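ARCHIVE CARD
Drawer: 12
Card no.: 0347
Subject: one protein chain, sequence and derived structure
Cross-reference: see card 0346
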Amino acid sequence: MLNPPDFDTPLVAVDVETTGLHPFTSEIIEVGAVKFLLNGDALDEFETLIKPLRPIPPSATAIHGIHDDMVINSPSWLDVAPEFYDFIKGAILVAHNAMFDISFLQFSGMINNQPFPETFVIDTLTMSREIFADFQKHSLIELAYMLGMDTDSLHRALADAHVCKEIFRSAFGVFGGDNSHWHPFMELYLFHTSDWQTPGNIPSEMMPIVNACRHGTDIMVEYIDSRGAQTLRRVTPIQMLRIRQVPYLIGYCHLRNALRNFRLDRISSWQLL
């Protein structure tokens, strides 16, 4: 376990562009990151395209503009990972909808025998929903617009990382923005990857889902959403984790065709398929 970060700990805003929504079936094709301090000073940048094993689908290119010709001479994840891991070493990661980026980074590390390092993470989407509660939408592009940022280059990794950095700084500024507010802020919004799948965090009756995560076994869940609506969903589980002391299942929801977070206390029943 890493030591708790202090006010002077560097942060790295990170964004990945991918070939799809699910790390089991999609790949990272671009990583962008900005290292900075809480006072806003930028320290360094990291940016690279990554050559995937399979062609980039047109549906993905339509989002970020990255096509096969752009990555044909790019390094593989095997080549990129050591340099990227060194870049983020000792820093707090900041990402918008962090579960998406971290799940891809962790899965890419796992299948390439290059485990993603333990680190602290802050999710600016969670921050935004609470600190900017009066905003109707909290996507990266909507927040950039609401906060007066340039949106012309969004959906490329480094540009998105820069916007993520500024969203974090704006939200932390509203929270208080100085050293005296750092520890209360950490208690609310900081989580650590080493706590995500420890058995002590998971109800014993749901431990078989942990094995399903490891083996990629689909499960069928009855899920009650925040509005009280109950749906039956087929889910490909990826990992268990805790966000602000609440246990979640992260998985690919076949009903929504997207990566989703499921609170364990809202799963009324489940079965292995």
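Annotation on reverse: The radius of gyration is 18 Å. The chain has nine helices and eleven strands.
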